[in-house]
Amino acid sequence: METKVVKICPERVADFDRELSEAAEIIRGGGLVAFPTETVYGLGANALDSTAASRIYNAKGRPSDNPLIIHISDPDGFERWCEVENKEALDKIKADFTPGPITIIQKKKSIIPDTVTAGMDTVAVRCPSNPIARRLIELSGVPIAAPSANTSGRPSPTKASHVIEDMMGKVDMIIDGGECEVGLESTIIMLKEDGVTLLRPGGITKEALEERLGEVKVDKAVLQRLEEGEKPLAPGMKYRHYAPVATVIALKGEDSRVVEFMKKALDDEGTGVICYREDLIENGRAQILGSREDKREMAHRLFDCLRAFDSMPNIKTVYTRLPDTDDIGLALVNRLIKACAYTVKEL
Protein backbone atom coordinates (compact mmCIF):
# COMPACT_ATOMS: atom_id res chain seq x y z
CA MET A 1 0.00 0.00 0.00
CA GLU A 2 1.22 3.50 -0.83
CA THR A 3 1.08 5.83 2.18
CA LYS A 4 0.69 9.56 1.63
CA VAL A 5 2.29 11.81 4.29
CA VAL A 6 0.91 15.34 4.68
CA LYS A 7 2.17 18.01 7.06
CA ILE A 8 -0.43 20.20 8.79
CA CYS A 9 0.20 23.03 11.23
CA PRO A 10 -2.15 22.66 14.24
CA GLU A 11 -2.13 26.45 14.77
CA ARG A 12 -3.44 27.02 11.21
CA VAL A 13 -5.89 24.16 10.72
CA ALA A 14 -8.28 26.32 8.69
CA ASP A 15 -5.60 26.62 5.99
CA PHE A 16 -5.49 22.86 5.48
CA ASP A 17 -9.13 21.94 4.78
CA ARG A 18 -8.17 20.53 1.38
CA GLU A 19 -5.74 18.04 2.93
CA LEU A 20 -8.11 17.22 5.79
CA SER A 21 -11.03 16.76 3.38
CA GLU A 22 -8.91 14.22 1.49
CA ALA A 23 -8.20 12.42 4.78
CA ALA A 24 -11.91 12.51 5.67
CA GLU A 25 -12.78 10.97 2.31
CA ILE A 26 -10.36 8.11 3.08
CA ILE A 27 -12.09 7.57 6.43
CA ARG A 28 -15.57 7.54 4.86
CA GLY A 29 -14.32 5.13 2.20
CA GLY A 30 -13.16 2.56 4.76
CA GLY A 31 -9.46 3.47 4.73
CA LEU A 32 -6.94 4.21 7.46
CA VAL A 33 -5.54 7.62 8.45
CA ALA A 34 -2.99 8.21 11.21
CA PHE A 35 -3.46 11.60 12.85
CA PRO A 36 -2.21 13.58 15.86
CA THR A 37 -4.14 14.08 19.08
CA GLU A 38 -3.07 15.88 22.24
CA THR A 39 -2.16 12.50 23.79
CA VAL A 40 -0.47 10.35 21.12
CA TYR A 41 -0.97 9.76 17.40
CA GLY A 42 -4.08 7.71 16.57
CA LEU A 43 -4.72 5.20 13.79
CA GLY A 44 -8.19 6.12 12.57
CA ALA A 45 -11.00 4.39 10.71
CA ASN A 46 -14.77 4.83 10.42
CA ALA A 47 -16.12 3.61 13.77
CA LEU A 48 -19.43 2.64 12.15
CA ASP A 49 -17.76 0.36 9.59
CA SER A 50 -16.87 -3.08 10.93
CA THR A 51 -14.59 -3.89 7.98
CA ALA A 52 -12.67 -0.63 8.37
CA ALA A 53 -12.23 -1.27 12.10
CA SER A 54 -10.83 -4.72 11.29
CA ARG A 55 -8.16 -3.03 9.15
CA ILE A 56 -6.92 -1.22 12.27
CA TYR A 57 -6.33 -4.54 14.04
CA ASN A 58 -4.54 -5.93 10.98
CA ALA A 59 -2.30 -2.89 10.47
CA LYS A 60 -1.24 -2.84 14.12
CA GLY A 61 -1.12 -6.59 14.71
CA ARG A 62 -3.50 -5.85 17.56
CA PRO A 63 -5.25 -8.69 19.46
CA SER A 64 -8.94 -8.81 18.53
CA ASP A 65 -10.02 -8.79 22.20
CA ASN A 66 -8.46 -5.35 22.80
CA PRO A 67 -11.25 -2.78 22.27
CA LEU A 68 -10.86 0.50 20.39
CA ILE A 69 -11.68 4.06 21.47
CA ILE A 70 -14.05 6.09 19.29
CA HIS A 71 -13.30 9.79 18.85
CA ILE A 72 -16.00 12.45 18.45
CA SER A 73 -15.71 16.16 17.61
CA ASP A 74 -18.25 17.55 20.10
CA PRO A 75 -18.48 16.75 23.84
CA ASP A 76 -22.28 16.88 23.56
CA GLY A 77 -22.12 13.82 21.29
CA PHE A 78 -21.41 11.22 24.01
CA GLU A 79 -25.10 10.30 24.40
CA ARG A 80 -25.42 9.63 20.67
CA TRP A 81 -23.13 6.60 20.87
CA CYS A 82 -23.62 5.24 24.39
CA GLU A 83 -26.25 4.75 27.07
CA VAL A 84 -25.51 7.21 29.87
CA GLU A 85 -25.80 5.62 33.30
CA ASN A 86 -24.52 8.53 35.41
CA LYS A 87 -25.58 11.76 33.71
CA GLU A 88 -24.58 13.98 36.64
CA ALA A 89 -20.98 12.73 36.53
CA LEU A 90 -20.90 12.90 32.72
CA ASP A 91 -22.09 16.53 32.75
CA LYS A 92 -19.34 17.49 35.22
CA ILE A 93 -16.71 15.72 33.13
CA LYS A 94 -17.89 17.38 29.92
CA ALA A 95 -17.85 20.80 31.58
CA ASP A 96 -14.43 20.49 33.20
CA PHE A 97 -12.36 18.05 31.14
CA THR A 98 -13.62 18.00 27.53
CA PRO A 99 -12.45 18.43 24.90
CA GLY A 100 -9.38 16.81 26.36
CA PRO A 101 -7.44 13.65 27.22
CA ILE A 102 -10.24 11.69 28.89
CA THR A 103 -12.16 8.64 27.66
CA ILE A 104 -15.51 7.56 29.10
CA ILE A 105 -16.80 3.98 29.01
CA GLN A 106 -20.57 3.34 29.01
CA LYS A 107 -22.96 0.77 27.54
CA LYS A 108 -22.78 1.01 23.76
CA LYS A 109 -25.64 1.69 21.39
CA SER A 110 -26.31 -0.91 18.72
CA ILE A 111 -25.01 1.32 15.92
CA ILE A 112 -21.44 0.68 17.15
CA PRO A 113 -20.10 -2.58 15.60
CA ASP A 114 -18.88 -5.36 17.89
CA THR A 115 -15.54 -5.26 16.06
CA VAL A 116 -14.87 -1.83 17.56
CA THR A 117 -15.70 -2.92 21.11
CA ALA A 118 -14.02 -6.36 20.87
CA GLY A 119 -17.43 -7.98 21.41
CA MET A 120 -18.09 -6.11 24.66
CA ASP A 121 -21.38 -4.37 25.42
CA THR A 122 -19.57 -1.16 26.37
CA VAL A 123 -17.87 1.47 24.25
CA ALA A 124 -15.01 3.87 25.01
CA VAL A 125 -15.66 7.42 23.75
CA ARG A 126 -13.56 10.59 23.87
CA CYS A 127 -13.49 14.09 22.39
CA PRO A 128 -9.88 15.14 21.70
CA SER A 129 -8.75 18.74 22.05
CA ASN A 130 -6.20 18.65 19.22
CA PRO A 131 -7.57 20.93 16.44
CA ILE A 132 -6.38 18.64 13.63
CA ALA A 133 -8.14 15.64 15.15
CA ARG A 134 -11.38 17.52 15.76
CA ARG A 135 -11.51 19.00 12.27
CA LEU A 136 -10.82 15.60 10.71
CA ILE A 137 -13.71 14.08 12.67
CA GLU A 138 -16.02 16.96 11.70
CA LEU A 139 -15.20 16.62 8.00
CA SER A 140 -15.53 12.83 8.12
CA GLY A 141 -19.07 13.07 9.47
CA VAL A 142 -18.61 9.85 11.47
CA PRO A 143 -16.97 8.96 14.77
CA ILE A 144 -13.41 7.74 14.26
CA ALA A 145 -12.17 4.57 15.95
CA ALA A 146 -8.50 5.12 16.78
CA PRO A 147 -6.03 3.29 18.99
CA SER A 148 -2.42 4.51 19.04
CA ALA A 149 -0.79 4.49 15.60
CA ASN A 150 2.00 2.03 16.39
CA THR A 151 2.74 -1.65 15.99
CA SER A 152 0.95 -3.40 18.83
CA GLY A 153 3.12 -3.68 21.94
CA ARG A 154 5.63 -1.00 20.90
CA PRO A 155 5.95 2.42 22.58
CA SER A 156 3.13 4.70 21.52
CA PRO A 157 3.92 7.36 18.87
CA THR A 158 4.22 10.98 19.97
CA LYS A 159 5.83 12.20 16.72
CA ALA A 160 4.98 11.62 13.07
CA SER A 161 8.40 9.99 12.63
CA HIS A 162 7.32 7.27 15.07
CA VAL A 163 4.19 6.61 13.00
CA ILE A 164 6.15 6.52 9.75
CA GLU A 165 8.53 4.01 11.31
CA ASP A 166 5.68 1.64 12.26
CA MET A 167 2.89 2.30 9.76
CA MET A 168 4.42 3.29 6.42
CA GLY A 169 2.93 1.07 3.72
CA LYS A 170 0.16 -0.16 6.04
CA VAL A 171 -2.14 2.89 6.03
CA ASP A 172 -3.51 5.27 3.39
CA MET A 173 -2.38 8.55 4.95
CA ILE A 174 -0.24 9.87 7.81
CA ILE A 175 -0.91 13.42 9.00
CA ASP A 176 2.18 15.04 10.49
CA GLY A 177 0.94 17.55 13.05
CA GLY A 178 4.10 17.85 15.14
CA GLU A 179 4.75 16.52 18.63
CA CYS A 180 1.85 15.51 20.85
CA GLU A 181 1.32 17.78 23.84
CA VAL A 182 0.64 15.28 26.66
CA GLY A 183 2.66 12.29 25.47
CA LEU A 184 0.60 9.60 27.25
CA GLU A 185 -2.70 8.06 26.17
CA SER A 186 -5.95 9.41 27.57
CA THR A 187 -7.28 8.76 31.05
CA ILE A 188 -10.02 6.10 30.86
CA ILE A 189 -12.88 5.99 33.36
CA MET A 190 -16.01 3.88 33.63
CA LEU A 191 -19.17 5.63 34.81
CA LYS A 192 -21.71 3.70 36.86
CA GLU A 193 -24.68 4.84 38.89
CA ASP A 194 -22.73 4.06 42.06
CA GLY A 195 -19.57 5.94 41.08
CA VAL A 196 -16.49 6.33 38.90
CA THR A 197 -13.70 3.79 38.31
CA LEU A 198 -10.31 4.68 36.86
CA LEU A 199 -9.28 2.03 34.33
CA ARG A 200 -6.25 3.74 32.80
CA PRO A 201 -4.50 6.81 34.26
CA GLY A 202 -3.43 9.61 31.94
CA GLY A 203 -3.08 13.36 31.64
CA ILE A 204 -6.22 14.02 33.67
CA THR A 205 -5.22 12.68 37.05
CA LYS A 206 -7.10 10.80 39.74
CA GLU A 207 -6.65 13.82 42.01
CA ALA A 208 -8.22 16.16 39.43
CA LEU A 209 -11.16 13.81 38.92
CA GLU A 210 -11.77 13.43 42.66
CA GLU A 211 -11.73 17.18 43.15
CA ARG A 212 -14.73 17.39 40.80
CA LEU A 213 -16.47 14.03 41.22
CA GLY A 214 -15.66 12.81 44.73
CA GLU A 215 -14.17 9.37 45.33
CA VAL A 216 -12.70 7.61 42.27
CA LYS A 217 -11.96 3.89 42.55
CA VAL A 218 -8.82 2.54 40.87
CA ASP A 219 -9.15 -0.75 38.99
CA LYS A 220 -6.58 -3.33 40.08
CA ALA A 221 -5.34 -3.67 36.47
CA VAL A 222 -3.81 -0.17 36.66
CA LEU A 223 -0.86 -1.55 38.63
CA GLN A 224 -1.36 -5.33 38.51
CA ARG A 225 -1.34 -7.97 35.79
CA LEU A 226 -4.73 -9.36 34.75
CA GLU A 227 -5.25 -13.00 35.60
CA GLU A 228 -5.46 -15.62 32.85
CA GLY A 229 -8.94 -15.52 31.32
CA GLU A 230 -9.85 -12.08 32.71
CA LYS A 231 -11.37 -9.84 30.02
CA PRO A 232 -10.04 -6.27 29.83
CA LEU A 233 -12.59 -3.54 30.54
CA ALA A 234 -10.69 -0.93 28.54
CA PRO A 235 -8.02 -0.63 25.84
CA GLY A 236 -4.49 -1.39 26.97
CA MET A 237 -5.34 -3.26 30.17
CA LYS A 238 -4.31 -6.78 29.26
CA TYR A 239 -1.17 -7.01 27.16
CA ARG A 240 2.49 -6.01 27.39
CA HIS A 241 2.63 -2.54 25.94
CA TYR A 242 4.91 0.40 25.30
CA ALA A 243 8.04 -1.77 25.07
CA PRO A 244 11.16 -1.45 22.90
CA VAL A 245 12.80 -4.58 21.52
CA ALA A 246 15.12 -4.72 24.55
CA THR A 247 13.99 -6.19 27.87
CA VAL A 248 12.92 -3.43 30.25
CA ILE A 249 13.42 -3.75 34.03
CA ALA A 250 12.16 -1.14 36.51
CA LEU A 251 14.27 -0.26 39.53
CA LYS A 252 12.90 0.48 42.98
CA GLY A 253 14.93 1.58 46.01
CA GLU A 254 16.86 4.43 47.60
CA ASP A 255 18.07 7.04 45.11
CA SER A 256 21.76 6.50 45.81
CA ARG A 257 21.44 2.75 45.26
CA VAL A 258 19.50 3.18 42.03
CA VAL A 259 22.03 5.65 40.59
CA GLU A 260 24.96 3.48 41.64
CA PHE A 261 23.31 0.41 40.06
CA MET A 262 22.63 2.25 36.79
CA LYS A 263 26.18 3.58 36.49
CA LYS A 264 27.62 0.13 37.09
CA ALA A 265 25.12 -1.46 34.66
CA LEU A 266 26.34 0.84 31.88
CA ASP A 267 29.73 -0.91 31.99
CA ASP A 268 27.95 -3.52 29.86
CA GLU A 269 27.63 -2.17 26.29
CA GLY A 270 24.40 -4.13 25.88
CA THR A 271 22.69 -2.09 28.61
CA GLY A 272 20.81 1.22 28.53
CA VAL A 273 19.15 3.25 31.26
CA ILE A 274 16.29 5.74 31.63
CA CYS A 275 17.20 8.18 34.39
CA TYR A 276 16.43 11.58 35.88
CA ARG A 277 18.35 14.70 34.85
CA GLU A 278 19.53 15.03 38.46
CA ASP A 279 21.17 11.58 38.35
CA LEU A 280 24.00 13.17 36.30
CA ILE A 281 24.57 10.02 34.25
CA GLU A 282 26.40 11.07 31.10
CA ASN A 283 26.40 8.22 28.62
CA GLY A 284 25.10 7.78 25.09
CA ARG A 285 23.06 4.81 26.34
CA ALA A 286 21.35 6.90 29.05
CA GLN A 287 18.02 8.48 28.13
CA ILE A 288 16.95 11.43 30.29
CA LEU A 289 13.29 11.03 31.29
CA GLY A 290 13.22 14.53 32.78
CA SER A 291 13.61 16.28 36.09
CA ARG A 292 12.48 14.35 39.18
CA GLU A 293 10.38 17.42 40.05
CA ASP A 294 8.58 17.61 36.71
CA LYS A 295 6.38 14.58 35.99
CA ARG A 296 4.69 16.39 33.10
CA GLU A 297 8.06 16.55 31.35
CA MET A 298 8.52 12.83 32.06
CA ALA A 299 5.12 12.05 30.55
CA HIS A 300 5.95 14.06 27.44
CA ARG A 301 9.31 12.27 26.99
CA LEU A 302 8.58 8.71 28.12
CA PHE A 303 7.71 7.03 24.82
CA ASP A 304 10.46 8.90 22.98
CA CYS A 305 12.96 7.56 25.53
CA LEU A 306 11.71 3.99 25.13
CA ARG A 307 11.77 4.19 21.33
CA ALA A 308 15.32 5.56 21.32
CA PHE A 309 16.74 2.18 22.31
CA ASP A 310 15.44 0.54 19.14
CA SER A 311 17.97 2.61 17.19
CA MET A 312 20.74 1.09 19.33
CA PRO A 313 20.99 -2.48 17.98
CA ASN A 314 23.37 -3.69 20.71
CA ILE A 315 21.01 -2.84 23.58
CA LYS A 316 19.53 -5.97 25.11
CA THR A 317 18.48 -4.67 28.57
CA VAL A 318 17.11 -1.31 29.71
CA TYR A 319 16.88 -0.31 33.37
CA THR A 320 14.44 2.46 34.18
CA ARG A 321 13.57 4.77 37.01
CA LEU A 322 10.12 4.26 38.58
CA PRO A 323 8.64 7.55 39.85
CA ASP A 324 6.14 7.82 42.68
CA THR A 325 2.44 7.59 41.86
CA ASP A 326 1.36 11.10 42.83
CA ASP A 327 -0.44 13.17 40.17
CA ILE A 328 0.49 12.00 36.63
CA GLY A 329 3.09 9.70 38.23
CA LEU A 330 0.39 7.01 38.41
CA ALA A 331 0.13 7.09 34.61
CA LEU A 332 3.92 6.97 34.23
CA VAL A 333 4.20 3.96 36.55
CA ASN A 334 1.30 2.25 34.74
CA ARG A 335 3.09 2.59 31.37
CA LEU A 336 6.49 1.58 32.73
CA ILE A 337 5.35 -1.56 34.53
CA LYS A 338 3.56 -2.68 31.36
CA ALA A 339 6.68 -1.93 29.30
CA CYS A 340 8.71 -4.13 31.64
CA ALA A 341 6.00 -6.83 31.86
CA TYR A 342 5.74 -6.17 35.62
CA THR A 343 9.44 -6.92 36.22
CA VAL A 344 10.57 -4.68 39.10
CA LYS A 345 14.00 -5.08 40.71
CA GLU A 346 14.21 -4.08 44.39
CA LEU A 347 17.56 -2.54 45.38
Brief overview, please?
The chain has 347 residues and is of the alpha/beta class. The chain is built from eleven helices and 17 strands.
Topology:
Blueprint: E1 4-7, H1 17-28, E2 33-35, E3 42-46, H2 50-60, E4 69-71, H3 78-81, E5 82-83, H4 87-97, E6 102-108, H5 114-117, E7 122-126, H6 131-140, E8 144-145, H7 160-167, E9 173-176, E10 187-192, E11 195-200, H8 206-213, E12 216-218, E13 247-252, H9 255-265, E14 271-276, E15 286-290, H10 295-308, E16 317-320, H11 329-339, E17 344-346
Helix pairs in contact: 1-6
Description:
The protein has 347 residues and is an alpha/beta fold. The chain folds into two domains: 219 residues, DHBP synthase; 100 residues, Threonylcarbamoyl-AMP synthase, C-terminal domain (Rossmann fold, 3-Layer(aba) Sandwich), CATH 3.40.50. 30% of the residues lie in helices and 21% in strands. It has eleven helices and 17 strands. Strands 1, 2, 3, 4, 5, 6, 7, 8, 9, 10, 11 and 12 form a twelve-stranded mixed sheet that branches. Helix 1 packs across helix 6. The chain is globular. The N and C termini lie far apart (49 Å). The model has no long low-confidence stretch (mean pLDDT 94).
